[in-house]
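Entry 14. Structure prediction run on the chain below.
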Amino acid sequence: METKKGFTVPEIFIVCAFATLALILFFLQKSNMDAMDRDDQRKVAINAMYYAIEEGYYAEHGYYPEAISEDVLTVMDPSLFTDPYGFNLGEEDSSYTYTPANCENGKCKEYTLRAKLEKEEDFVKRNRN
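Output returned:
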């Protein structure tokens, strides 16, 4: 009796099915990890803006600005005003928003910083004074 070496068609099919399933699971998990990484970047940026406003701008001026930018918050890294998709704070599709409140003549008493996250609720920071 002669035995043939090699794989049968069903064996090859089963191996391909497992490999396909493993690749699908890998890319789904990678996609989730990438989204979580972008969310972490957004939180870092909002925290940097928050502390630059509170510890820098408010401490020096005694009020909050009507708008923020790299010209107003010079103590922080300007690249943090750009979200992970390349949109700057204030642009329509940006995941960052700064909303001032109770403003008179460009001097505001309150504000809200917000980042739209992909895997969690929005990350929000409000004035502390």
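The chain has one domain: 9-126.
Filed with the rest of this week's runs.
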